[in-house]
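Researcher: I need the complex structure. Ligand is PBG. Inputs:
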Amino acid sequence: MNFNWLRRPRRNRSSSQVRDLIQETSLSTCDLIYPVFVKADIDQPEPIPSMPGIFRHSLDSLIQECKEIATLGIPAIALFPVIDPAHKTAEAEYALNPDQILFQALKRLKKELPELLLIADVALDPYTSHGHDGILNAKGEVDNDATVALLQRLATVEAQAGADWVAPSDMMDGRIEAIRIALDNANLTETSILAYSAKFASAYYGPFREAVGSRAKSSSDYLDKKSYQLNPANRREALLECQLDEKEGADILMVKPAGPYLDIIRELRNQTLLPIAAYQVSGEYTQIHAAAQNGWLDLEKTREESLLAIKRAGADMILTYFAKEIAQKLNRQPLI
Ligand code: PBG
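Model: Output:
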């Protein structure tokens, strides 16, 4: 029995060769940025319980890990320091200590792996005793401009230590312009700014906060960053933040988290000519692993679908904890 349908869309899905030719978006190793954690004074990498396969690295194990990353063809890492609570203060002074682990790591990586692009986060949460991304005023609120002044200095020292891109993740007003000016004044005109432009006050950051130890005092309390991070309900406000960062001189705009915010990525893609990064955050990684551990989801298929969806939405590059395993898999696949 045959109807004479004029259009039979299934013809375009009829074999793997046809499907390959039809495929609109693809994922490749060169789209990926690997977030890595580094901690001072440890001998062995420390596993992070809620993030299977991810470690807090010592300086030496970080170098080893990054050699592997570079060999796999991953173009960049995003570096996050894990700071000893003894060094954390309300005013985050330790952030600018020239001996702190982030600067040490940047210097060594730049020297030993000059071809690997280094992205340094610009925010104070690793260094504050209260866990906020900025310092507080007398009323206990995050003080925007006092924080921006510190971020200017942090970004400058990061760039001087070897960061190719600095990535402000704090969501303070005016910080992109302020950091651009500070970098240019220090003759760091080649350093790019990857702006966390649309960063939402998300529950998906939980495992990351455990990894860097920036949780609220009581572990059941999730630190409230709603006075600076975006309300998950707001699309226009997110796009406005992106517009401002573009005007202030950002080189690349970021949306974070990625999976639950694909509409923002797509709408931003339609509005800006700048490159777009998306951060598939710790909780997005964790939920796929947790379901896979229970046998409820297929790890590899879900992982690849989640990343492909982020590309399809319009992201040019993705920060993802899956970067290494994806690169290992893609590199293993024969071309013919
Ligand atoms: C803080 C920062 C966070 C992440 C990156 N930088 C957490 C937060 O805002 O509380 C989250 C990344 C992740 O969850 O993987 N400056």
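Model: Summary of the prediction. The pocket of PBG is lined by residues 121, 123, 125, 133, 169, 205, 208-209, 225, 281-282 (CB under 6 Å).
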